[in-house]
Amino acid sequence: MSQVQPKNRDLAAPIRIGIIGGGPAGLTAALALEAYCTDADVQITLFDKNRSAIDYPGVEYGIQARACQALERIGLKERALRRGVRAHQIEFYNARLRRRFRPIQSDPDNTRCVVRQEFLTDLMGLVARTDIRMQHEVVRIRKANDNSVCLDISLSDGATTTETFDAVIACDGSFSTARRQFFPACADKIDQGFSCIYMLLEADAPEQAEERFLHLANGGTSELIMGRNSTLTLFPLGDNRLAYGIGFDHATRARVWAEQGVESRADWTDLRADTRRQIATALVEDACPHDPLYRDALAYVDDWDSYKIYLWKMQDTDPLERPYADEVNAILIGDAAHAILPTIGMGASLAIEDAERLGKRLAAHISRVSTPEAFRSGFHKAVAYPYAKARVPVWFELVRRARLAAKENFIDQSTRKRFAIGPAIPNDTASRVVSAVERVLRQVGV
What we know:
The chain is α/β, with parallel strands linked by helices. It has helices spanning 24-36, 65-73, 77-80, 116-126, 177-182, 211-218, 250-259, 273-287, 292-296, 335-338, 347-367, 372-377, 379-410, 428-443; strands at residues 15-20, 42-48, 60-63, 85-86, 89-94, 99-105, 112-115, 131-134, 136-143, 149-155, 160-165, 167-170, 190-202, 221-226, 231-238, 241-249, 309-316, 330-332. The strands form four sheets. The chain has a seven-stranded mixed beta sheet with strand order 6-5-14-15-16-13-17. Helix 1 (24-36) packs parallel to helix 11 (347-367). The longest helix has 32 residues, at 379-410. The protein is elongated, with a radius of gyration of 22 Å.
């Protein structure tokens, strides 16, 4: 059940909130504002440059406890996650050493695996009072004379328009217009030394599929397999579908690309379909040569040119210490504020939590003012400053852990004996405890 703030019945006019980006952060921000505010309180408009959820790249989201609890607070958890697979545990195997580690148990009620495009479609279907405008790309954010915020927007037909708001939430991802405009010195993404081939494998004829594959695809167990020079990640997505990742560092990429007769700098999109298949097969055989299941699973790729098969260069950004613009009422959340590596599966979950927490804080500010002018003048003190104080330490800790997991699980695998442990961090104190445990494990060589 949502914990809704008191509504303000005395506003002279509704507060206009603009949202840039229709990913998990943007859609959750809209849903949170709808839950915490009435029609009379707020007018919400969301802009997204894509045509639909299908245009969002990627295979899966791991929706962890942070996000599940945030969605539950606004009363939408089960409807938003209706197509998600409940995750029970993660298994770890060092194939080079043929050593299994104790699995990490997860709470299936608060840990789900979802297909990215399906999840975004379901979130969008829950939006009730927000004006969603697809194929509207925000190209500039600027301040008006009355302290409101102007968004300059490019339309799909090449025309331009301008919309005005009392505040703007920038949720436009790791290539954020807001980040490039307000924080140009730290807008570039940081190469973390490895890449990952992501695939969505589907058994269209399950009666002919291998039983072990169906168990992986439809069960609640994820797998992480560390080989000599590559690491496999497998996440169940249900309906006979499996998210399959092959991670490898730059040195391995150069070697494998050369073995296939292509330049090491050649982009994945420039490779022929048969070359992509050969590269993936070589990397899987390197990771786990003694179990044919993982190589044979590649047979479920029916089109190596599909958007469901792509190479992701692992890059992130340092979190913004002050994720708001001083000169205008705009605040950045999600990947726009902290693009995080997928190595601990927290990107979408953190963005969802960001959005719900911000929605509640905005609603509290709205409940205390009587005019849009008062809302605008108090935005930084009542919303931006306290929000940053609460959220930024969480961002830095999770980005740090994601980078540690990258180092431990995907770079120089031939020297690794252990795995970086999971991302469950309920608060800052727990973060310090988990970090101390990790240090002890490294000292004893686990």
